[in-house]
């Protein structure tokens, strides 16, 4: 691995194995799987041509097709970084409106981490949380994909972007 995600992935503690080119990391309570990109030369932009794509997210998709993060051993859950195909399925299935499109799904709080296309070049981050039960009240996360991934790992999978109950 030799890209900007190396540092993020190295922060995950646990035993590492590669199976079929996919990186598996298991620690005492969680499993992480980074699924290699089937064909790193495939145009991610062609699959997601309807969307403005942040560079760091595209870089991730050239290396990995998708990922499962903080999946509990024996009970599942966690957070999934969506493959380009699942981005389209979730976008349509959850009727997410422009300027948003999903790039990650949280099984803990049932919602999507979305790119806000209007904020990609803002310099203040472009991610937004859209909860499946309350889609009309998005929460701006104000991080890039790489910053969000790093912070999620630092917080050991806790959804730091969701305000504590009563502070919303």
Task: Write the topology of this structure.
Blueprint: H1 6-10, E1 15-19, E2 22-26, E3 30-36, H2 44-47, H3 55-63, E4 64-72, E5 79-81, H4 84-93, E6 100-106, E7 111-116, E8 127-131, E9 134-140, H5 145-154
Antiparallel strand pairs: 1-2, 2-3, 3-4, 4-5, 5-6, 6-7, 7-8, 8-9
Overview in brief:
This protein has 168 residues and is of the alpha+beta class. It is 23% helix and 32% strand. The model has no long low-confidence stretch (mean pLDDT 88).
Q: Could you characterize the architecture of this molecule?
A:
23% of the residues lie in helices and 32% in strands. It has 168 residues and is α+β, with helices and mostly antiparallel strands. It has helices at 6-10, 44-47, 55-63, 84-93, 145-154, and strands at 15-19, 22-26, 30-36, 64-72, 79-81, 100-106, 111-116, 127-131, 134-140.
Helix percent band? 10-25%
From the helix content, strand content and strand pairing, which structural class follows? alpha+beta
Low-pLDDT runs of 5+ residues are none
Overall strand count: 9
- How do the helices and strands follow one another from N- to C-terminus? HEEEHHEEHEEEEH
Distance between the termini: 39 Å
pLDDT average, as an integer? 88
Whole-angstrom Rg: 15 Å
Residue share in β-strands: 25-35%
Number of helices: 5
Main sheet strand line-up: 1-2-3-4-5-6-7-8-9
Major β-sheet profile = 9 strands, antiparallel
What overall form do the CA principal axes indicate?
Answer: globular
């Amino acid at each position: 691995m030799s890209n900007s995600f190396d540092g993020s992935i190295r922060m995950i503690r646990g035993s590492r194995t590669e199976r079929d080119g996919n990186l598996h990391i298991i620690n005492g309570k969680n499993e992480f799987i980074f699924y290699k990109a089937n064909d790193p030369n495939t145009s991610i932009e062609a699959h997601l041509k309807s969307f403005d794509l942040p560079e760091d997210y595209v870089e991730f998709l050239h290396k990995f097709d998708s990922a499962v993060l903080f999946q509990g051993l024996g009970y599942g859950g966690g957070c999934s970084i969506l493959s380009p195909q699942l981005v389209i399925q979730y976008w349509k299935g959850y009727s997410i409106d422009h300027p948003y499109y999903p790039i990650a799904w949280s099984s803990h709080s049932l919602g999507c981490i979305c790119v806000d296309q209007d904020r990609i070049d803002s310099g203040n981050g472009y991610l937004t949380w859209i909860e499946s039960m309350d889609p009309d009240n998005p929460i701006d996360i104000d991080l890039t994909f790489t910053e969000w991934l790093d912070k999620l790992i630092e917080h050991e999978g806790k959804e730091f972007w969701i305000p504590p109950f009563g502070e919303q």
